Amino acid sequence: MEFELWVRIVKESIQKGNINPWDINVAKVADEYIKTLKELERFDIRLSADVILVGGILLRMKSQVLYEKCESTLEDDDVEDNPPEDIWNYSNVVQKNPQEKKGVPSKKHLKDKKQITVEELIDTLKSELKKVKRSREKKKNKKEDVIYDIIEEMEKYDISELMESLILELRKEGIIVFQKRFSDRKDIIKNFLPCLYLANEGKVEIFQKEIFKDMIVKYRENNSYEK
């Protein structure tokens, strides 16, 4: 049976990144996956919705991993027990403690998390894809999760051109407040993922002065965008 393209890209990303298939580093897989999408794009290869959606899911998984690492370094009194609601919890590959609240991982729980194999990662991604598609059908008249709206909308645009346009503007301005520069919903959706790609490649820096406030995008000097 033929593998779906996104499955092949995930497996190739693991090989390229020299990642242990029995103990998957989700952050590294996400980085390698996005790099591959960029390479395919340079050859004008049209990517399916599933391939792009998986990229978004991996970015969300990476965000959760980084959040948990940060949370585990802080004392209990300094942080809330609940992670942000929009960060996806891949609970089907986590051993749950029956004494914990459902969906709320404790610090001990984070430490007890078992290793993730490549097959478990792929099964998890398949499950998430199904959830996304079901969600689209059931919530046509409701507010969709922003990340899925962004990824779906991005299929209409040439990400490379958007990235080039953004980097040219940032080179002139130095820094922009994303929500002020792109106030229209369509422009926000169109430019959000290219900003993430540029940050992933080290060409811009993205940060917030306050959590859940305006996103600031800063041009990084001496980056290799033109090389």
Question: What does this protein look like?
Answer:
The protein has a 3-stranded antiparallel sheet with strand order 1-3-2. The protein has 2 domains: 5-140, no CATH class; 157-219, Arc Repressor Mutant, subunit A, CATH 1.10.10. It contains 9 helices and 3 strands; from the N terminus they run αααααααβααββ. The protein has helices at 5-16, 26-42, 49-72, 107-111, 118-138, 146-154, 159-173, 178-181, 185-200, and strands at 175-177, 204-207, 216-219. α1 crosses α2 and α2 runs antiparallel to α3. A hairpin with an 8-residue loop joins β2 (204-207) and β3. The chain is 54% helix and 5% strand. With 227 residues, it is mainly α.
Oligomeric grouping of the chains:
single chain
**Count of folded domains:** 2
In whole angstroms, how far apart are the ends? 41 Å
Catalogue the unreliable spans. Answer: 79-112
Strand content: under 5%
The number of helical elements comes to: 9
Q: How many beta strands in the DSSP annotation?
A: 3
Name the structural class.
mainly alpha
Question: How much helix is in the residues?
Answer: 40-55%
- The Cα radius of gyration reads 18 Å
State the order of secondary-structure elements, H for helix, E for strand.
HHHHHHHEHHEE
Shape: globular
User: Please, what is the average pLDDT?
Assistant: 73
Strand order of the largest sheet: 1-3-2
> What is the makeup of the main sheet?
3 strands, antiparallel
